[in-house]
Amino acid sequence: MKVHSLSDPCPCGRHSAKGRPVVYGQCCGQWLETDLPAPTAESLMRSRYSAFCLERAPYVLRTWHATSRPASIEFEPGVKWLGLEVRSHTVQDATHAQVEFVARQKSATGPAVRLHERSRFVLEDGRWFYVDGDAL
Asked: Model confidence over 11-39: pLDDT tens digits?
């Protein structure tokens, strides 16, 4: 697990209305470092990206819907996450949403790759969960 200061820019890359990077403690850190639920599907998706950057497997698994959650998750050694672009956040109804994003990463031994996905989220008992996604 990697350590990240609450005052550092958030790994998800969110910016304020003034164009300044939002700090981790006021962004994804609110959910990764506490038991508070992310308030929107987009916030959950961003926090899951940050959890991948910080290698926080328990958070990734806890926020994955039980119907599609793997038994465990492993992080590839030496992967560097290079950035996240949220392309859209669509609220379908009171308990369903989709987030389209592009995440970039580089492995220790290979070229940089892009993960472009439209992810599905569901709200249950006041918490958003990642269900699954379609690669685009």
From this structure: 999 999 999 999 999 999 999 999 999 99
Q: Which CATH code fits 24-135?
A: 3.10.450.50
CA 72 – CA 108 distance, rounded (Å): 22
Report in angstroms the alpha-carbon separations of 95 from 13, 44, 69: 26, 14, 19
73-111 residues labelled b (16+ CB within 10 A) or e (exposed): eeeeeebebeebebeebeeeeeeebbbbbebebeeeeee
Q: Domain locations in the chain?
A: 24-135
98-134, pLDDT tens digit by residue? Answer: 999 999 999 988 899 999 999 999 999 999 999 999 9
